[in-house]
Amino acid sequence: xATYRIEGEDWPSDHPQLQDVLRKAYERKLRPACLCLPPFPxxxxxxxxxxxxxxxxxxxxxxxxxxxxxxxxxAELSGLGQVLGSAIQENVDDGQVLLKFDFSLKKLGAKTAPxxxxxxxxxxxxxxxxxxxxxxxxxxxxQAGFTRWSPAMENKRHWGVVRKYLLEAAADKATKSxxxxxxxxxxxxxxxxxxxxIAQARRVFMSRFAAQNKSxxxxxxxxxxxxxxxxxxxxxxITLKHLPDCALFLDEKSFNRFxxxxxxxLGLWTSVENSHLMAIATVSVxxxxxxxxxxxxxxxxxxxxxxxxxxxxxxxxxxxxxxxRRFTKGLRYNLGTHKPLAVAVLQDTAPKPxxxxxxxxxxxxxxxxxxxxxxxxxxxxxxxxxxQALDALPA
Length: 395
Fold this sequence. Notes:
Strand order of the largest sheet: 14-15-16-18-17
Distance between the termini: 24 Å
Shape: globular
Structural class: alpha+beta
Helix content: 10-25%
């Protein structure tokens, strides 16, 4: 539980009067101090749905205690360091975060086949100074807190919780032309008694994107969990959970390219029991209200909603979770798959957090991994799945 110091008084985060105190501080543009670790890092305040939220100042995640909810592992250990300050620009004066995308939110001219998006072989694409679709999902997932894990979170994550915190994470984010929340659609959990109300709210939101002319169409950004995919009456479709009556349509050529590009992610989803497959996509809406897929990226997550890239990462994350460890998962963002990163950072080791790495045996990868470890202030631990059993975690 966090405690904030505001004008000399200390306020625990669960204090019943904290919201009133934060609102006055917000109106006066004061900076609360988080009392987790001297010299007590400053926070800034933002407003969301009538509430005032305290957020860490840019690039100060490492200044907080590893047990603090505002702690963040060093950005250079993941792909965040590559895009922070360029594709992600935080303005603490107005509480807004400007995001720069390398994908389009407008469709010009005739409809063309959708492109898969995310970490691909093209180094220009994967190491762009702007956010790919996958990197955008990584950032929102990270901001929503679903890269973090502690034993107290067991059995407390479900789609309603995921949706709530993703929307909260998007609330203070904006593109160069509009707030992110104006274009972001995340389906609600299905409730039989609210079926019509949920469908009507969706229709109202999507009506803003319905094609008015063929020369320029505004796209919406959609995040959801994949339920199934396959042939439609004409072409193919991808269906998201909680959105069974509003599939995303694409043609055969695009579907084949999609399944080829995401063969690994689809394989992990089908083979890892209780895993979820998250999708982020740009979507156009035609005059009839039908949704068409323009660009898409996929991200497998464990049953605890923690992202993983491969079977080795999943094994390590499950081991950490079932061992009652407290950690933060590192995400790749735009970083190419040939680049090393800390798979996770253990926050319950002393005297400082420990970065966990998986070795792949490739010489260039090993060289860069050693450089990453050498330049880091954190303790390190390396697991080679080809030669070591996954048993002795850092104490």
